[in-house]
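Table S2 (text version). Query chain:
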Amino acid sequence: MTMTQQPHHRRRPVTVLSLLLLVMAVTLGPTPSSAAGTDWWNPVARPAPDSQIGVTGEPFKGTNSQGEVRGFVDAHNHIMANEAFGGRLICGKPFSEAGVADALKDCPEHYPDGSLAIFDFITNGGDGKHDPDGWPTFKDWPAHDSLTHQQNYYAWVERAWRGGQRVLVNDLVTNGVICSVYPFKDRSCDEMTSIRLQAKLTYDMQDYIDKMYGGTGKGWFRIVTDSAQARSVVEQGKLAVILGVETSEPFGCKQILDIAQCDKDDIDAGLDELYDLGVRSMFLCHKFDNALCGVRFDEGGLGTAINVGQFLSTGTFWQTEKCTGPQHDNPIGGAAAPSAEEELPAGVEVPSYDDDAQCNKRGLTELGEYAVRGMMQRKMMLEVDHMSVKATGRVLDIFESESYPGVLSSHSWMDLNWTERVYGLGGFIAQYMHGSEGFSAEADRTKALREKYDVGYGYGTDMNGVGGWPAPRGANASNPVTYPFRSTDGGSVIDKQTTGSRTWDLNTDGASHYGLVPDWIEDIRRVGGQDVVDDLFRGAESYLDTWGASEGHKAGVNLAKGASASASSSESNPFTSYAPGRAVDGNTDTRWASDWSDDQWLRIDLGSTSTVKRVTLEWERAYGKSYRVEVSTDGSTWQSVWSTTAGDGGLDTARFNGVPARHVRIHGLDRGTDWGYSLYEVGVYSS
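Corresponding structure-token output:
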């Protein structure tokens, strides 16, 4: 979920309410279908009246000549966001047993003219007034810049499926702080209560669609809980739906004055519950720092306002430091947010930040690392978008040390400098649903890496995520979408989409709702070229590759655990031991430490010769800046298999072609500090 500010003519002060809101970032009986019993993709009975689909032709099935599934993947959507934030922030429902008129109607307070549409005013500027009527006229909504109205009506999702999409990640989303401050609500602000409801309603939506097709399991909307299920669904030509979670305080892991409000038991119970609900991917932090990780900042006046919200929610402002690598968080900026700042306690001011300090000091906490490893144990995929670069770097270190591929960046909130590390792990990347020009340009920037790692690409629509969507390029723009057009696979014809008396045209309306995803992809083809669309059409295969590899991951056997170890020296301490064996005892609370000089080594005897491909090193603050990993079969003749001159501490993973070795030596050449070399734990692996 990504919040953006929309341009408008009259600017109003940013309020605390706007700050917290901007943080993120149907009983009509069915009637028989004329195609019943012949065209499997058409329902036996569809409610009448209802939205039109605007697509003809059979959806493609099966795999290509290489045995790969085909199709687009939306890695980030919020079908049930209308149930979040107290239930009155996103107006309208994705389906209703009472029919389309009940599903696509505005919130009560928006009548008669939108004067009380507070969130609409904040996100879209102006006076917030709009025609609240949805069905059948849809005069003012849905629209590409109306962030408060349902964009995921089931028939619009159906059109995206018919246009070639085969995987959809439905992120269950909410924010307790936003709910608590928004004046209109009709239910509790408890985050887990909302997550449970959204999961249930996603299954209810599956049942609703199944009934149109004649019974359980017959519809095109299929919730899946493992990658094999997903592949089967896609091969049948249907839409595989995966549940994810994007919320600011998962498992109740809020922090107040840097004190965590959760513990490891809460994390285990929360992960188990989410897994049982069918959740297979999730974010650990979003917008506000929490007890698990620090966040990637928002910029300018919005960033200032969110920083005020950070203080009001947690008792602390963001803290920055100089970045240690090319990756950086978004600059907070110095723009004022007067109305928000007025809500701070007397004498408290938003801190100023150095221009050259763009990284959040807060990374992955001890509890956050416990949650990451808990997700690995459950074979879940972790979303790194919205994590600070310090937190993301630690996550990637952990995953690399375990060769775990389950990392996702689903909507352009990850620093692009992480791209190769994500692909190197076997992870998956999708881009936010930008306009066709911007989307194509960003796709081009990372194309070489997709070719290097032979992976497809995805998009994250973030619909219902109050982020804003592609504006119209205009009927007179160069190379506009012409209707009707062929789907990417060539098997379907896609015409303009009509719901009620309103017909949408991407050229003049922009991406107003989910049904216009195929039109947007056609616009990308015309603006960015067929190559971009071809990469997107491989997205389903690559996403399922990442998921399947995560499910199949097995923790490697650490050949060094409990092995005999020796060292060039060991620091003397009357209260504790820093002996060499402390680095291979399986306990990350103990460590080996050398004397305070260079040219030090730690040697591990594996007991017998094995193939060695990977060595992991968990450094204490006294780390090696320049060091080598050396191996030997006899303990006398040594071969260097990996080295660095740019070590920065933390968790390092040395990978190299498999070599036979009985002895492994870490040879320190240049210290990163004035102390010696100190390792909590060394791991040696054959895989």
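Notes on Table S2: The CA atoms of residues 184 and 493 lie 43 Å apart. Confidence is low (pLDDT under 50) at residues 5-37.
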